[in-house]
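Bug #77: duplicate submission created two jobs. Keeping one. Sequence:
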Amino acid sequence: RGWMPAKAEGGPFVHQCGKHLLISLGVEKKLLPGTVINQFTKVRAAEVEEREGYKPGRKQMKEIKEGVTDELLPRAFAIRSQVKAWIDTENSWLVVNSFGTAKAEDLVGLLMKSVEGFSVALVKTKTSPVVAMTSWLANNEAPENFTIDQDCELESRGEQRAKVKYSRHSLETQEISNHIQNGKDATRLALTWNNKISFVLNEHFEFKRVDPLDVIKEKAALSADDDSFDSDFALMTGEFPQLIGAVVDALGGLQHIDGPLFEQPEAEEA
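Kept job's structure:
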């Protein structure tokens, strides 16, 4: 794993647009199934038994297996993936585009090792997303500039953690209210902000299924030039800080955090 050019092969590792930075972590994995290793190991063990006249012991089998693995690795298929992250230095946001938290944690960990003085903190709002989303659903009232869409997930607080999922379903029903009254909380809720971006907010302050709506796509078409990558990046980084800020405000603002969310390393003297 390591850093890759953020925009195109051969380009800089950091793509900059104003006060916004884009970086990319590259990961390469070798696809070498355990069944293949075991198959070759058995063949090598049989060769040793035929040559030496005795079956290899546990220690020798381990050495054979390690040797087979080293031999097969160069022939294994390589699977490559990228995880991109956007750094908003003006508003102190680090946003990682990843399906899972493990990859996001890998990127953040490597970033902190790579950039001296860089520090991060998880977003913690005064009102938790679960409490806020449950309240919005129960009262059928979204915060200012937001609308509630037709997807949500409710989960009980009991030991069984029973879940109910709604997809493309009206959430203005007595059924939803009954679930909430019976002890279920909203852990995922689909929202639209300012008629510009639809998304799903979950209990961990993660944004899923982010989809720019027509008003943004039309702006992108009007501003498109020879480099659509730059125009798309500039347009979205102009909208997303506002979206994140609006969600934070809807959740009561940020809790106090000791130290800044984002620290830039001090410039070295010439």
